[in-house]
Write a structure and sequence with these properties.
The complex is a heterodimer of chains A (about 400) and B (about 525). By secondary structure, chain A is an alpha/beta fold. Chain A has helices spanning about 5-30, 50-60, 75-85, 100-110, 170-175, 200, 210-215, 220-230, 240-245, 250-260, 260-265, 280-290, 290-310, 340-350, 360-375, 375-385; strands spanning about 45, 65, 90, 115-120, 185, 270-275, 315-320. Chain A has a domain at about 195-385. Chain A has 16 helices and 7 strands. Chain B is mainly alpha-helical and about 525 residues long. The chains are: A alpha/beta (about 400), B mainly alpha (about 525).
C-alpha cells in the first residue's frame, strides 16, 4: 500500500479509536445526568452548576429554586423548604452574572411549574469577565433540543468524573481518565452547592486570627491587601484609582434586561430577591478605594427597589441593617458570610422582615451610609498587620 | 467560521474537498475552481454577508485596473495615473473602515471638538486582501503579470485557507498553481502532509495559545486599570502574551498552509521560529514573513530603500515599520510598536555597520555573544508586544514600569528566612519587600488566575518557542533517506497524528478567535 495512504488510514482509525474510547464511557455513565434513559444509577452530582443544573432540571422533582452566586450557595434546600415552604433545589452558579442565571431560569420555566425563586442580587454588572466559562460552552444544555446536550461530552472536561463511578475499577479508570475530582462532586443535591462544610472554607471564619492564619488564601490575601490600600491617605494613592473610577460595574440595565421579563412573564411565581449582606468593611473599603463604584451600588439599590415595586409577584430584601455585617467573625473574607447567616436570612424572609420598599429604602440606605462611615478600617488593618 | 470549529472541520472542509475532487476527477477543472471560489465566498460571508459585497467590489475594481495596467497600448503616463488611482482606492477603502473612528477621535481631542461618527465595523480580512491586491496592481504596472484570468484572480484573493489572516500570498506564487492538473486529483501525499500540518497548527492554537490567554488577559486588563501588580505578575502576563501571540498566529498560519496543501496548493510559510532570532533584523525575517516581504518589496523599496544613503535608509526603515504598525490597528499603541521596531532596526543596522565595517570584528560569533544577542532580541520583542497588546499607552507604560521594578520588587516571604539577616536588611533598604511574588491582586484574583501555579506553563511554552523545532521541521523529509518522514513511518506517525487530532477535538469546545483576525 502507498505509505501515505497507509498513514491517512492509520490516522483516521486511531483517531476514531481514541474518540470512541473517550465518548462511550461518558455516554454510558452520564455524569451530568443528562440522559432520560437510566443506563447507570446516579451516584453523584457535579458541583459545576452551569453544567449540572440541566440534569437536575431534567430529572428531579421540585417546585422552588434558589439561584444566585456563591452568596446563595450555602442555602440548604431542605432548610429553605422548612422555612419558606415548597420543595427547593439550589442551582446557584458560582460567580455568575444575571445573564447566565437567566439562561437556566428560562429553561426551568419551560420545563416546570415553579412557585418560588430566590435570587441573590449580585452580578449586576456590565463587565464581561475574563474568567472562565464562556456562555456558549454550556448554554446549549438549556435549549429546546435534547440531543445536542450530549455534545458536552465531546470535551475532556468530564472524563475524570468517570473515575468517581463505582462501576469502574479505580486504579484502571484513574490511569485512563484521571483521578476523580472528589472535591467537585457530592452524593446528593441537598448539599451540592454549599461550601460551609468544606474544612478549608469553614476554618477561615472566626475573625482576625483566622484570617491571619489563612493569609495565603487567595480570597483573604486579596481582602487584606485591599484593606491595607484603603487606609493609605488619599493624597498618597496613585492615579490608579482615578482611572478605576471611570468603570461602570453596577448597572440596573442588567437586571431590567435579564430578570424583569421573567418576573413579568411568570406571574404565578413568587420572586424573592435579596442583596447579599457583604461585610460592612467591604463597603467601607470600596468607598475608600473606588468611591464611584460605591455610589453606583447605592444608585442600583434605589433603582432596583423602584423597578421591583412594579411587580406584585416580587419582593426585595435588604439585610445590611442587621448587626452581623459589622462583625468580621461572620465572614471568611470581605464578602462571603457564614451559613448561619444564610439561615437567618431565610427566617427574616419568611417573617416578612427586612423587606425593602419604596417607603423605607431611603431610610435604610441613610442608615447604611452612616454604618459605612463609622467603620474603623485602621483598627482592622492594624490588627491584621500586627499579627501578620 | 473558524478553522478551530466543529462546523469548519466536520462540515465545511469535507464538503469543499469532496466537491472539488469529484469535479476534478471528471476533468471539470474550471467547475472545480468555480466551486472553490463559491465555497470561499460562503466561508467569508459566514461572519457578515454584507461585507461579501465589499470584497467582491474590491476584487472587481482591482481586476479591471489590472487589465488596464497591462494593456500594451496604454501610455506610461496613463498607466501611472491608473496605478495611483487603484492604490489610492485600496488604501481609501482600508482607511475608511479601519481608521475613520480613530481619526475623528484624534481631531476631537486635538481641537476640543465633538464630531460624532457611528462605530464603523472592520470587515474581516480587509487588511490582508487589500495588501495582496495592491501588490497585484504594482506588479501589473511593472508588467510582471503573466495572466489575467478573472476566475483564477478571484480564487487568488478569496482562497479560504489564507483569506482571513494570511499568509499574504503573492499572485506569482498562487496563480500558476491553479493551472497544475495535479491539484484537481485527490492525492494521498498532499492529504497526508496537509492534514499533519493542519493538525499541528490546531494543536498550537488550542492547546498552547488559548491556554496562555487565560494568563495574559487578566494581567493586561489589570494594567489597563492601573491596578497594583507585582513585578513577577507583570512579567508573567507579558511572557504569556508573547507565547500566546506566537502560537496563535503561527498555529493559524500552519492551519492555512495545511488546508491549502490538502489540494496540493503551496502557500508560503509565515513563521520560522522567530523567537530563536539573534537580532531584530533576523526576527523580521522569521516573524510574519509574508508581511515583512510585502513591506520590504512594496513600501521600503518604494520609499527608496537603501539606495539614497544611510540617513534615508534609516528614515525609510523607520517609516516602513511605523506604517506596518498602523496596518495592524488604529491606535497609538500600534504606532509606538511600529516606531519601536523601526528604532530597533536602525540600531541593529548601525551596530552591524560598526561591528563589521568600522571596528572590523569579523570574528566568529561565540556562544556568549549569541546568547546575549538572543536574550536582547527577545527582550526587545517582548517590550514591543506590551504596546502591541495594551489597549492604551498608559496601560502599556504601567505594565512596563511594573516589569522593570519601578513599582517595587516583592520577593517570596519564605526567602527572607533563608538568607542572612544583613543581606535581607540590605535588600529591604533597597526597597525590596518580602511579600510574595504574586499578589493575586483583586483584578487578577477575580479572573481566577494563580500565577504561582501557572508560571511553569508560561516558561515551558516559551522554552518550546525558543528551542523546539517548528512545524516545517517536524513534518519534513528524512535527511538520510530523503523519504518523507510520514511515508517512512506511516503507522507510528499515523497513530501520533490520530492522537493529536483526538486531543484537539476534545478541546475544541471553546472556540477562541485568532488574534490576527483583529488586524
Amino acid at each position: 500500500m502507498n505509505p501515505m495512504r497507509k498513514f491517512i488510514i492509520v490516522t483516521f482509525f486511531s483517531g476514531c479509536f481514541f474518540l470512541a474510547g473517550h465518548l462511550l464511557p461518558l455516554i454510558f455513565v452520564d455524569p451530568l445526568n443528562i440522559s432520560q434513559a437510566e443506563l447507570t444509577d446516579n451516584e453523584f452530582y457535579i458541583r459545576e452548576m452551569r453544567f449540572q443544573s440541566a440534569g437536575i432540571i431534567n430529572k428531579l422533582d421540585f417546585d422552588s429554586v434558589i439561584i444566585g452566586s456563591s452568596m446563595a450557595e450555602n442555602f440548604l434546600p431542605q432548610t429553605a423548604a422548612d422555612i419558606l415552604g415548597g420543595k427547593f433545589v439550589n442551582l446557584s452558579l458560582s460567580g455568575s452574572l444575571l445573564s447566565e442565571r437567566k439562561v437556566v431560569l428560562e429553561h426551568l420555566f419551560r420545563k416546570k411549574k415553579i412557585s418560588k425563586v430566590l435570587i441573590s442580587l449580585d452580578g449586576i454588572t456590565n463587565i464581561q469577565r475574563n474568567r472562565g466559562i464562556p456562555l456558549d460552552s454550556w448554554s446549549y444544555l438549556y435549549n429546546d433540543s435534547y440531543y445536542d446536550d450530549f455534545t458536552v461530552y465531546l470535551t475532556r472536561k468530564f472524563s475524570p468524573y468517570l473515575s468517581c463511578h463505582s462501576a469502574l475499577k479505580k486504579p484502571i479508570s484513574n490511569f485512563i481518565f484521571g483521578n476523580c475530582p472528589n472535591e467537585k462532586i457530592r452524593n446528593n443535591v441537598e448539599n451540592l452547592t454549599e461550601w460551609q462544610s468544606d474544612p478549608d472554607q469553614n476554618s477561615r471564619f472566626g475573625g482576625v486570627d483566622s484570617w491571619v492564619k489563612h493569609k495565603k488564601n487567595q480570597q483573604i490575601d486579596a481582602s487584606i491587601k485591599k484593606i491595607n490600600r484603603s487606609i493609605v491617605k488619599t493624597a498618597e494613592r496613585t492615579e490608579a484609582y482615578t482611572k478605576q473610577s471611570e468603570r461602570i460595574i453596577y448597572d440596573i440595565d442588567e437586571f431590567i434586561e435579564n430578570i424583569s421579563p421573567l418576573i413579568l412573564e411568570q406571574s404565578n411565581t413568587q420572586f424573592i430577591l435579596f442583596f447579599p449582606p457583604y461585610s460592612v468593611y467591604h463597603h467601607a473599603v470600596t468607598k475608600e478605594l473606588e468611591p464611584n463604584i460605591y455610589n453606583q451600588y447605592l444608585d442600583v439599590v434605589k433603582s432596583l427597589v423602584a423597578e421591583v415595586s412594579q411587580y406584585p409577584n416580587a419582593d426585595i430584601y435588604w439585610f445590611q441593617d442587621e448587626g452581623f455585617s459589622n462583625d468580621i467573625e461572620n465572614y471568611k473574607d470581605l464578602t462571603h458570610y457564614h451559613q448561619n447567616i444564610s439561615n437567618l436570612l431565610l427566617r427574616n424572609i419568611s417573617q416578612g422582615r427586612s423587606k425593602m420598599t419604596n417607603e423605607n429604602h431611603l431610610d435604610l440606605l441613610n442608615e447604611f451610609e452612616k454604618q459605612v462611615s463609622n467603620v474603623d478600617l485602621m483598627t482592622l488593618a492594624n490588627a491584621l498587620n500586627k499579627i501578620n | 467560521m473558524l478553522f478551530n470549529s466543529y462546523q469548519f472541520i466536520f462540515f465545511f472542509l469535507p464538503i469543499v474537498l469532496i466537491g472539488f475532487f469529484v469535479l476534478g476527477k471528471r476533468d471539470k477543472n474550471t467547475a472545480a475552481l468555480v466551486w472553490l471560489v463559491a465555497c470561499s465566498l460562503f466561508f467569508y460571508s459566514w461572519w457578515n454577508p454584507i461585507y461579501l459585497l465589499l470584497m467582491l467590489f474590491s476584487i472587481l475594481f482591482n481586476y479591471l485596473f489590472g487589465i488596464i495596467l497591462t494593456k500594451e497600448d496604454c501610455g506610461e503616463k496613463k498607466r501611472k495615473y491608473y496605478l495611483i488611482t487603484g492604490v489610492a482606492l485600496n488604501i481609501g477603502l482600508l482607511g475608511y473602515f479601519k481608521y475613520t473612528n480613530f481619526f475623528i477621535d484624534q481631531i476631537n481631542l486635538a481641537f476640543d471638538l465633538s464630531f460624532h461618527v457611528e462605530k464603523i465595523l472592520l470587515p474581516l480580512a480587509i487588511s490582508f486582501f487589500t495588501f495582496q491586491q495592491i501588490a497585484y496592481l504594482v506588479d501589473a504596472y511593472r508588467r510582471e503579470l503573466k495572466e489575467n484570468n478573472l476566475l483564477r484572480y478571484c480564487l487568488f484573493v478569496t482562497f479560504f485557507p489564507q483569506l482571513i489572516a494570511g499568509p499574504i500570498v503573492h499572485h506569482k506564487e498562487m496563480l500558476p498553481q491553479f493551472k497544475f492538473a495535479g491539484i484537481y486529483q485527490a492525492n494521498a501525499r498532499h492529504i497526508a502532509i496537509g492534514l499533519s500540518i493542519f493538525a499541528i497548527g490546531l494543536f498550537k492554537k488550542i492547546v498552547f495559545a488559548d491556554n496562555m490567554a487565560i494568563h495574559a488577559t487578566p494581567v493586561f486588563g489589570a494594567a489597563e486599570q492601573y491596578a497594583v501588580l507585582t513585578l513577577f505578575e507583570a512579567w508573567g502576563g507579558a511572557l504569556a502574551y508573547t507565547a500566546q501571540l506566537y502560537f496563535d498566529f503561527s498555529g493559524y498560519s500552519d492551519m492555512a498552509i495545511g488546508l491549502a496543501y490538502l489540494i496540493g496548493i503551496k502557500i508560503p510559510i509565515n513563521f520560522n521560529s522567530p523567537y530563536k532570532s539573534t537580532s531584530i533584523i533576523e526576527f523580521w525575517r522569521r516573524w510574519h514573513m509574508t508581511l515583512s516581504r510585502f513591506l520590504r518589496d512594496y513600501l521600503y523599496f518604494a520609499l527608496g530603500g537603501n539606495r539614497k544613503g544611510n540617513t534615508r535608509r534609516y528614515v525609510n526603515l523607520f517609516l516602513t515599520m511605523v506604517i506596518g504598525g498602523i496596518w495592524h490597528g488604529a491606535g497609538w499603541t500600534f504606532v509606538i510598536w511600529g516606531a519601536l521596531h523601526g528604532s530597533y532596526l536602525m540600531i541593529n543596522h548601525s551596530w552591524r555597520k560598526l561591528r563589521f565595517g568600522i571596528l572590523n570584528w569579523n570574528t566568529d560569533v561565540g556562544f556568549v555573544e549569541m546568547a546575549v544577542a538572543r536574550f536582547l532580541t527577545l527582550l526587545a520583542v517582548i517590550i514591543g508586544w506590551v504596546y502591541f497588546r495594551a489597549e492604551s499607552i498608559g496601560g502599556a507604560n504601567h505594565m512596563l514600569l511594573t516589569m522593570f521594578g519601578f513599582y517595587g520588587v516583592s520577593l517570596p516571604s519564605a526567602l527572607q528566612a533563608l538568607i542572612p539577616n544583613g543581606f535581607a536588611n540590605y535588600l529591604i533598604e533597597m526597597g525590596i519587600v518580602f511579600n510574595g511574588m504574586f499578589s493575586g491582586g483583586s483584578v487578577i484574583g477575580a479572573a481566577g488566575v494563580n500565577f504561582g501555579d501557572s508560571i511553569k506553563w508560561i516558561l515551558l511554552l516559551m522554552l518550546i518557542a525558543i528551542s523546539a523545532p517548528n512545524s516545517q521541521q517536524l513534518i519534513s523529509r528524512d535527511q538520510a533517506s530523503s523519504q518523507h518522514i510520514l511515508a517512512k513511518y506511516p503507522t507510528i506517525f499515523g497513530i501520533i497524528m490520530g492522537a493529536i487530532l483526538f486531543y484537539v477535538f476534545i478541546n475544541l469546545q471553546q472556540e477562541a478567535e485568532f488574534l490576527y483576525f483583529n488586524f
